[in-house]
């Protein structure tokens, strides 16, 4: 199904491109960077995001082949507009040494298994839990926000060698995490090399 882009969104992207030149980015990286900037009105993401085009191409192919999508919180899930996602936070419980967000990641992994795309935009502990599982993800969008553990968990993600999109700073959040995934979902398979 072809996505119809509203004129307000078209104008927003036009204005974004008058404020920052993203033409040097490869196609899928550009799509992710622009969509994240669009969702946050924060031009600094152009220098803060860490993306790899080869990783994005593989994840894009997996997504369009039906790889399951897991969201750490309902706000991330609500922002994913072209795919149903798994979010197990409602059933999760905290315990000694385990946050509710971390437990939700365990429950989701039990449900989806390897090869999923994980979208973490809220809880650094969710990202930390994913890193200790043998989840074999197609992609981890690790953009949790906060002053405690967010930057550190994203650094650990980058150091893990897992296929990932992350950022260096403490900023992030549900909207930008969902936006990064939506960028991949909105880019059709046939045009990803020409975007």
Architecture overview:
With about 200 residues, this protein is α/β, with parallel strands linked by helices. The protein contains 9 helices and 5 strands; from the N terminus they run H-H-H-E-H-E-H-H-E-H-E-H-E-H. Helix 7 links the parallel strand 3 and strand 4. The longest helix has 14 residues. The chain is globular. About 45% of the residues are buried. The mean pLDDT is about 95.
The tally of beta strands, per DSSP, is 5
State the end-to-end distance. Answer: 18 Å
Name the beta content range.
5-15%
Secondary-structure element sequence? Answer: HHHEHEHHEHEHEH
| Biggest sheet character | 5 strands, mixed
- Structural class by SSE content: alpha/beta
Contiguous helical run count: 9
Enumerate the strands of the largest sheet in spatial order, edge to edge or round the barrel: 1-5-4-3-2
Query: What's the gyration radius in Å?
Result: 16 Å
């Amino acid at each position: 199904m072809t996505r119809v882009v509203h004129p307000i969104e078209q104008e927003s992207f036009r204005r974004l491109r008058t404020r920052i030149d993203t033409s040097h980015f490869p196609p899928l990286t550009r799509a992710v960077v622009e969509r994240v900037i669009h969702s946050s009105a924060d031009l600094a993401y152009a220098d803060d995001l860490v993306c790899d085009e080869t990783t994005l191409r593989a994840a894009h192919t997996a997504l369009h082949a039906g790889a399951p999508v897991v969201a750490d919180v309902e706000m991330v899930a609500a922002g994913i507009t072209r795919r149903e996602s798994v979010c197990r936070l409602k059933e999760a419980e905290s315990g000694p040494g385990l946050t509710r967000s971390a437990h939700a990641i365990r429950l989701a992994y039990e449900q989806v298994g390897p090869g999923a795309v994980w979208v973490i935009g809220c809880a650094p502990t969710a990202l930390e839990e994913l890193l200790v599982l043998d989840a074999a993800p197609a992609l981890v969008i690790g953009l949790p926000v906060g002053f405690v553990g967010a930057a550190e968990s994203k650094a650990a993600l980058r150091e893990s060698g897992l296929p990932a999109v992350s950022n260096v700073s403490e900023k992030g959040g549900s909207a930008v995490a969902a936006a990064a995934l939506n960028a991949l979902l909105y880019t059709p398979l046939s045009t990803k090399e020409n975007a």
